[in-house]
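Weekly structure sync, notes
Attendees: PL (lead), two postdocs, one rotation student
Agenda item 3: pending single-chain targets
PL asked that the sequence for the first pending target be pasted directly into the notes so everyone works from the same version. It is reproduced below exactly as submitted, 241 residues in total.
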Amino acid sequence: MDSGAKEYSENIQKAITALQNGEMILLFDLEGREAETDFTIAANAVTPADVRWMRKDAGGLICVALDSEASEELGLPFMADIVREANQCSTALHKIVEKGGDLKYDSRSSFSIWVNHRDTRTGIPDNDRALTINKLGEIVDRTLKGEEVHFGSEFRTPGHVATLRAAKGLVHERMGQTELSIALAKIAGITPVMVVCEMLDDENGRALAKGDAKQYGGDHNLVFVEGEEVVEAYDIWLSSQ
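Predicted structure, written out during the meeting:
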């Protein structure tokens, strides 16, 4: 079954086509979870204009979600594990690192390290962040094709692009934007490295309401996809593998 299989809903089909064409979509996770809508786009397709668009119109943190297998191969740890190890040097850290129950919407976060590509200068301008994001897409693509690569030869940390490590079971293990976006990438048959950025409300200091996010999508001709749709489509895709 290919990414154009008729079993997918019309909306998922539109999302798949948009992602394959390197276009932005809007991705909502789940009511009762974060209940947030993220700008979502394939890392390989990101341009400086896309980075500017996300920081100005979305306003949240621009992050890059990476496939679990590739993260393992590249040696990317979870940030919480790094902090736990660092507690041996600074014993105050054990009071800071996340523990079970800290997150009201999930059991843990998916944050890994923050990076800049070595060809950037400061790493924060739109051009620099776009380059780092593109290179993350490239190194994952090379890794999944079996090429032996060394993450540190291309990236340094600390940096200005947050990486997120997807759960191995994706949406069957965790329903975060990280896993939802990577599931969509797999369904679409594109490199499983996705950029996500939360949409925030300029007036009330909160995440943008779902209805307002949908309205924005309609005004800007962006496909709006809900997490439950992604799970259904991912199960269809899995059954064909």
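Discussion points:
- The first strand starts at residue 25 and ends at 28.
- The chain is about 40% helix and 15% strand.
Action: rotation student to compare against the earlier draft before next sync.
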